[in-house]
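Hi all, long-time lurker, first post. I run a small reading group and we've been trying to get comfortable going from sequence to structure in the token notation. Rather than ask abstract questions, I figured I'd post a concrete chain and ask someone more experienced to write out its structure so we can walk through it together at our next meeting. Sequence below, copied exactly:
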Amino acid sequence: MKRYDGMVKTTNNHLAEVLDVLAPNLADPLVETKTLNALYGLVAHLPPISRGGFECRLDPLEPQVDLQLCVEPDAEDITLMGRWLAELAPDHPAKSPLLRLLDLWSVDGPSDQRFPELWLEFDCGEAETRVPALFFALPQNPVYALHTWPLAQAGLDALFGRANWRPWKGNLKRCLAGWPDGVFISHLGAMLSRQGQCVRVNIKRLNDATLPVFLESIGWPGDRATATHWAGVLLRHADRLTLSLDLGERLGVRLGLEAFFVHQPPAATGWDKLLRALIRRGLCDPAKAEALLVWPGHTTPLNVKTPWPQSWIATSLRQPANRFSTVERCLHHIKVGLSPDRAPEAKGYV
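-- Answer (accepted) --
Happy to help. Here is the structure in token form:
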């Protein structure tokens, strides 16, 4: 480890090198120095996969920033994950579910019968546990909902074990049956580091008209008027909405509403208006909003302020002369979380 400008840097670690490249764009107020140090401590123990993002709380008093890694079904990612899993203790909560999920990629079959990506999400505030939430993606444009049901069952069997999640099957089926046209489940996941077992369900392409109908059809026990209100706030500025809810033997009361743009808009005409709406409602610190707006862009060997990661240099040398590595930075979505026991909260995903 070495320290510079108040930050701790970990040498000889690929993800730490990636964090070095991104650190100038992750500065205060979006990521405090103490939080960045915690991220360096976390990535020293993770597989060297540089595809992912950061989850940033937008309240000025909430400094926590979480890390997400995206694993794709290619030989390199599977090999890296295999090496990392081999180093985990046999009783690590994520080891068996991840091995079972990776095994599903080794089964031959049509591409639409294999999940397209796997996400690991680490709560940096609980870095000492290093227990990620695990999410697997389903095909993103199914012809109809039940096309994804066999794959969803296989993934949930891998995450929880068949006997553990089957009592929730009726609730999940109700989610499938309640879909309006064009709406689909994009991801299913397990929050392994949190108490109580349930599946996190992400449902795409609802709007403020179909949301209350859908919530009523599945028997969601929360405040539908509040959920519809916040859906309207987000969709006044964004293009699409994703609903995130917890499902076990009962439907969870907590709800997440994620706002997306189909195409990345100019900051002044898209994200800026959305963030200003959240600022007016007390959910977003203006300084953090400004930091989110200046985040999008590209980092290249020509504009980087730290050494370029050695593995990327090696990869570039194997490419044609007119190709080189680059980091694309984008603001992916904004999420408003609703819970009956606390005020709404906003997060930015970069």
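A couple of things your group might point at:
Residues 280 and 294 are 20 Å apart (CA to CA).
The chain has two domains: 1-44+297-323, 45-296+331-349.
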